[in-house]
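Q: Hi! First time asking for a complex rather than a single chain. Here are the components, and I think there are three in total. Is that enough to go on?
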Amino acid sequence: MSELSAGNGTPRVGVYVCHCGTNISATIDVVAAQQAAETLPGVVISREYKYMCSDPGQEIIKKDIHDLDLNRVVVASCSPCLHEETFRKAVADGGLNPYYFQMVNIREHAAWVHKDMAAATAKANDLIRAAVRRVRLHQPLEARRVPVDPNVMVVGGGIAGIHAALTMADAGKHVYLVEREPSIGGHMAMFDKTFPTLDCAACILTPKMTRVRAHPNIETMTMSEVTAVDGFVGNYTVTVRHNPRFIIEDACVGCLECIDACVFRNGKTQDEFNLGLSKRKPIYIPFPQAVPQVVLIDPAGCIEFRTGKCKKTCVEVCAERNAIDFQQEATTEDITVGAVIVATGFETFDATRLPRYGYGNLDGVYTALEVERLVNASGPTDGEIVLRNGRKPEAIGVIHCIGSRDKNTNEYCSRVCCMYSLKLSHLLKEKTDAEIYEFYIDMRTAGKGFEEFYNRVAEEGIHFIRGKVADVYPEAGNPDKLVLQAEDTLAGMVRQIPVDMVVLATGLEPRQDAEDVRRTFNITCSGGGFFMERHPKLAPVSTFTDGVFLAGACQGPKDIPDTVAQAGAAAAEALALIDAGFIELEPNTAFVVEENCSGCKTCVGLCPFNSISYADGKAQINEVLCKGCGTCVAACPSGAIRQNLFDDDEIFEEIAGVLTNA
Amino acid sequence: MLEVTEDRGAAPEEFEPTIAAFFCNWCTYLAADLAGTSRMKYAPNARVIRVMCSGRIDPQFVFDAFAKGADGVLIGGCHPGDCHYQEGNYKALRRYRLTKRVLDALGVEPERFRLEWISAAEADRLRDVMNEMAAQIKALGPADFSVPDETFPGTDPGLDATAEEAVVS
Amino acid sequence: MTDKPKVAFYWCASCGGCEEAVVDLAEKLLDVVEAIDIVFWPVALDTKRADVEAMEDGSILATFVNGAVRTTEQEEMVHMLRRKSQLLLAFGACAHLGGIPGLANQSDRDTIFDVVYRRSPSTVNPDGVVPQTQTTVNGYKLPLPGFYDTVRTVGQVTDIDYVVPGCPPTPGIIAGAVNTLLGGDLPPRGTVLAPDVALCDECDRKTTKPETVSLTEWKRPHLVDVDEELCLLAQGLVCLGPATRAGCGAQCVGANMPCTGCFGPTSRVRDGGGKALAAIASLVGSDEPDEIDHILDGIPDPVGTFFRYSLPASLLRRAPIGSRNNTPTATTERSE
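A: Yes, that's all I need. Here is the structure of the assembled complex.
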């Protein structure tokens, strides 16, 4: 065995410089780097090879460990974020402690970002030298194993959360499904038909919602929000606040008689589910298929809450069940889980930010989501297309890319709007036979069956005009008609088309509180403000916080098929984590060398994880709680705290290594 | 966006600064990775040393880097509020401000020592900072903390006499 | 000629306090003097340089050198005493770390001469004469010591065996050092002869220090009614105890003055000033850059505070020569 404990014998370092095909070797003279490495102190062998991460590449390392009695290995290739694990495993398979390994990033940090070969090679040489100097001080460490809590939490009860929850529940896991709204279902519950099949959204969604409600392994918590997350992968403690609906959930059977009985004859409050297109009473159920089938009371609208002097006919009518509780208060509870899937969804772009389209000003202008409610049979107009002025439209304009593909609002494409615009055009045509004009920049219909859907809709006589609408204004002398002015770029002229109804294809945005939510879960946001995945191609459902996964539109605009696919993927990865039973934590913890500690307490208050305690005149670090940030190590004024893998001496060696030629 | 300062056929003696860059693993290091995957191009002057958190940066590292010949030192961490370890970047900020005062008092130009908050998605920011810092420090010239060897006229042998002789005679 | 072990003392750029520290041994001094033969001690005895030159190499058992190395004469003497001595000890903060004279490394010779010999308000020097390295006496050209740009520690000039730290070393430390040397079981070469933990370890106020100290203001000692029992850091005073070696008995703290770090850092620290500033920065009670700066304004001279004794021994050692601080015009103008 070539395993050498620290201080036993001299370091014998093997250095491996990877070509990565031509990814590295096109810009870095890998042979020169290999030769330069040969001359470094402690280096016994230095090689260059086309693909170090491949099986043969790894075999080279294992063979050299055995044949040349290596006790340290340095690989200069890509980012450690990609292959540090790979090479550590190869080193371990070769019989050496995996932490006797150091990786050098000469691809992402050098070959791919510089043009001059001499400069890039000089940089690579410096980085390799630093790693060789550093690795000589590495210690044989053991990864810490921590058991994993078998329960999981899904935050967000839209189609993504529902699918993820069902998948994991079917696998036998206890799932906590946390939803902020009074019912699960999310945005999909608001749609009428879904593209490209024109499946009725409720028909395909409600069975899943019912399964969720009935599933023995799913604990659904509506009216609930996550307020804090503590702990680490495999051992999260999530604080959930349950907001009051003023109804005792177990007592309510969903008969809805309280709504009929309410002293309000007609609704006076804007109905949120119908986006303000209709009104509701203060006691209500968000939509007929709500899960749970329980009403709730809105204290802002309810007379009993506002004045204390209501007849409370609702309570009378519920005398048998006695489900109404005006005193109900918010409660919190702490829930321990091993993994969390964040599926908090999206918001639609606020069209008032683009005043030229007249939304909020001109009665005939609607957002796409509002139109979804209009065409929906259980919507504010029972599925009839009736405008705010009471008329039926004879001409309709659909404007694409509202708040998308625009430097002034959002640069990204929201991906679903072309398809849903076609869908809405089809539904509107079906219901009104109006002349429909779609104003588009490009038609993006890339999914399975999407192009065929486009062709079908085009054959229905919808007019397609390639051009952005510059202005929406009422026709002179005829306020019910709105003129859409756009440049028809294919015909090469400006057109002014009068319509009765304008549908704005608003884009998808992250939720307003995305920043707060991401801080709660300790994840980051990427460009556009959506939650950031670990890797855009190869790790689209995990985040850089182990144990926290993403599903659905909160990670980026996407349609229902992709959402469901991603939710399944997130569930699978969460299951893989839970079923492994334990997780291995990187052994980069800090520790106090007791005889060197003076008890100055500088470190104690610095640890955000409360890993440091003070007893008997000395500081102590709880290895299980320590996350390895190293703040206490830097702060200790007498150098009594050290850190595995990031010890002072190791970093000083790196500094010396990169600056040898400075 | 600044021009990439690359040594393409420039005179070999032309000064190219070396910048020691301490990047936190979760934000700035990933931004540099992203810049790489996106094939952005920037000046090759920095040498990255990876730490888990900007809070790990000991002022000794900064001083050591300058002492060993770095012409500039860059610390890259997560934006305030976004630290993977909650607060490490705030600690880095406080140490940075005080270390900067020391360097300032020693006459070190402020452009040589920088703390930048660069999130994992901000590859373009990383590129810009690398280019900007390289250009600025190149214009300033090398940072030189060396202690020169000194000889003094009049202290060499071959003088006329010893002190005693001079006084006595 | 005696058989007693030979001992020498020498002072370089020094205030004389380390010499007095030896005298401070008081009654013990007489015992010490009895036991050894002091062959060279410029402040107290009349032995000349030539006498030292004439000694055999290695014939002095131990030489205690205090003061920092600032001139060529001091350097020559240190080299000579190194040859003549078996053990060379850096005695006191100046020899160990550079000491107060080390703060001159923020400047350079020309600037210093210009200020001291020409522009300071109490100087009368109409011809603007500055120290030279050569002079003529009775027609003979004689050398004078050169004045280095950079102050160095004794350890940066030659190999030293041990360090007796402090400004000055306390009687307890000196006695301890002497006992160690005479004890026969010598510690590894280069050891600082004081405990290798920070001062808080022996400070009476340690138990009163809260686990979290978070300050929004630094106080100057003379403006505070100092609580006799509470940790000085907790009272907002800049006490460098956590970053300074123990061994002095925390005498300054006992006198209500915050520790200024004269014993230097522990052996695990490469730059004492850097660690001291890390410790102080950890106590700053704000996360906002502007507030942080405002709090740090309460330490107006960070180099003088954190590197008070240790600038030459620090990693940077000095301000870059020719930096913008070091031109004669850059220093504060004073009225003539």
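A: The CA atoms of residues 45 and 148 of chain B lie 26 Å apart. Let me know if you'd like any chain examined more closely.
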